[in-house]
Structures are given as structure tokens and as C-alpha cells.
Amino acid sequence: MDILCLSHLRWDFVFQRPQHLLSRAAKQGRVFYVEEPVFDGGPRVELARRENGVCVVVPHLPAGSDRATAIATVRRMLTQIVDEHLLTDFVLWLYTPMALPAATGLAPAAVVYDCMDELSLFAGAPAELCRLEVELFARADIVFTGGQTLYESKRTRHRNVHAFPSSVDVEHFARARSIAVDPPDQRPIPRPRLGFFGVIDERMDYPLVAGVAAARPDWHTVLIGPTAKIDPASLPRAANIHYLGAKRYDELPSYVAGWDVATLPFARNEATRFISPTKTPEYLAAGKPVVSTSIRDVVRPYGQQGLARIADTTPAFVAAVEAALAEHSADRLLAADAFLSRTSWDGTWTRMRLLIEQTMRSRVAADVQIAQDAS
């Protein structure tokens, strides 16, 4: 199965859902991952193959190009890629409706919309995004959602929608359970440590982070990840809040190993209403107790099954962390491992692939029937 994927996310920014799925897809076919254009000259297209086999495609366009020109140029680039690489029965895979105009004219064997977030609710969302999503639903053959809440929002908008919540590479994060040496930049930070990794953006509850730090100055909060869409100067600062910057995916277990509690201090706002944090099962695989705000896809199933403590206010969050620090780790690990045994990115990709293949067969059968009816 060859895949031409159009995404709003940079492949090398943060290793998350697209990277997990398409790295696995690349073991079974060619994958071309097309990023949004870079306006720094050109026009030209840059192709670079990663170690996992994915070919990352970056369109370079002249600075100052208007949207119509950019769409037309990227459309020509996509056609060129399809022709030069002899992509015939390929799957067109989209992560954002904004990419749809550039895909006009392509003739894929199937169109997949992997809706991992409600992008219309994110800061800086384009005004036309909702209109283009309506068009994408009309064109897509199958739709996946990145969580149960998002599925409930989208399931009436398409005939073929399937929920695939965030999964986990258990083996990768379970390494944290046996790592005893801290990375150099985390080593000087006193314990107990409250940790978070992910993009540091408008979705985080910064008053909560500051409030916990002020309430318990003996605790130290470690925040790992790149900053996006917010002014770094606005981030809470204190002697016991530590920003360690972005880390590679393969480095994360070493950092989580040195935490006492893993946290998800997300704000409860429009941008977080439909999120399904991938880091929740990753924290559990690393063997850490989890404390989160009441993000719906964390409450269900993790909070309901006793795998995460849920708290929204500073006093409640402090109390939840205190309980996590005092809990019996053996019981928690048994419960977490039992839950995680039922999920994996390998299993998620296998189920997705089977659904795509089934959809492609149904599409072929429908085309044959239409041709027969016409004759």
C-alpha cells in the first residue's frame, strides 16, 4: 500500500500519531509525507528519506506567494511526485482539510482523513478550515478519529468513521522502568519531580502549573518539549519550574525514568475539548503514576479505571500528587500493564490497514456496478 500523506505537522517536530502510523506503513509500502510549504525561495521540492523508510517532502515556494499561487504550485509538485514515482493505486492520506485544494486532480485508490484533532478550535485556525472539512468529508472514503470524544463529534458526518484513540509503543517507554541514570540536564533537579513532555502551547493550564509550584516549593516541575503559538516570556517562572526544551523521541524514556509523578496539566478550553493525549499510555508504560486535569479522553478510560488521578484546581492537583507519591507501585503497575496489553501502535496500524483495504475493495465493487448499470 503506497501512501501520499498531506499534513500540517512537520515530521521532525514531535514524534506523535502520524509518525507512529506512517513509520509502520512504510514497512509495507512507499510513504511520501508532504509537509506544508516553506516560503524561502524556489519553487522547488525537497525529498529526504528517513531511516524508517518514510520520504519527507517539503515544498519550497517564493516568499510572498499568495494562497492561490501556493496551492497551484504544490498541486503541480504532487502531480510530479505521483508521475515520477509511478504511484498508481495509492492512498491519499490527509491530516488537515487545508491540504485538500492542493490534492485536487489526484486520482487515488482511496482517500483517508485521519482526524487527530479538532483543528478548528486551535489558536490561529484558518477561517476556511470548517468549510474545507465539509468538502473533505464528501471526498473521503474512510475517516479515522484520534479519540473517542472526537469520534462522537464526527460520526454523523460520514458513513465510514472509526475511532482509533492514542496508542503506545510499550516496549519503548517501558525502558524507563530500568533506567537509573538521569540525563545531564535533569540530574541537578531535586526530587520529588513532577514531569510533562509534549508541545508547550495554548492547551496548557499555566496558572495551575504556577499554583502547584507555589503551593509546594519542595516539588520540582520538569517540562520537556518545544514551545509553540505562545510567547515564551509568558510562561510561569519559579525556582522549582524547569524548562528543558525539546527532546528526541528516543530520549524520552531516560527523562521519564527520573520523574516521581507524570502529569497532564492541560487547560479546559476549546483547544483541549477533543484531545486524546498520546502521552497518557506512554506515561503508564514508563511505570509512572499519572495526574491529569479532566480532559474527557483521559477521564474515559484512564480515570474511570483508576489508571490516572483527575484534578482541576491547585489544591486538588496537589492532593492528587501527594496520593500518587504515597501509592503502592506494584498494584499500579499490574493494573497499567493489564490495560496496555490490549493496545499498541502495531495493532492500531494493522486494524487501520484492514479497514482501508476493505474500503478500497468496496469502492472497486461500486465502480464496477456503476459501469455495469451504465452499459
Could you characterize the architecture of this molecule?
With 375 residues, the chain is of the alpha/beta class. The protein has 2 domains: 195 residues, 3-Layer(aba) Sandwich (Rossmann fold); 168 residues, Rossmann fold (3-Layer(aba) Sandwich). Helices cover 36% and strands 17% of the residues. The chain is built from 12 helices and 15 strands. Strands 1, 2, 3, 4, 5, 6, 7, 8 and 9 form a 9-stranded mixed sheet that branches. It has a 6-stranded parallel sheet with strand order 12-11-10-13-14-15, sandwiched between helices. Helix 1 crosses helix 12 and helix 6 packs across helix 10. It is globular. The mean pLDDT is 95.
Structural class: alpha/beta
CATH C-level class of the largest domain is: Alpha Beta
How would you state the average pLDDT, rounded? Answer: 95
Strand content: 15-25%
Distance between the termini: 31 Å
Gyration radius, rounded: 22 Å
Determine the fraction of residues in helical runs and give it as a percent range.
Answer: 25-40%
Q: Which architecture of the largest domain does the CATH hierarchy give at level 2?
A: 3-Layer(aba) Sandwich
Give the H and E element order. Answer: EHEEEEHEEHEHEHEHEEHEHEHEHHH
Give the overall shape, derived from the CA principal axes. globular
How many domains comprise the coordinates?
Answer: 2
Task: Give the CATH superfamily of the largest domain.
Answer: Glycogen Phosphorylase B
Please outline the major beta sheet: 9 strands, mixed
Number of strands: 15
The name CATH uses for the topology of the largest domain is Rossmann fold
- The poorly predicted ranges are none
Q: DSSP helix count?
A: 12
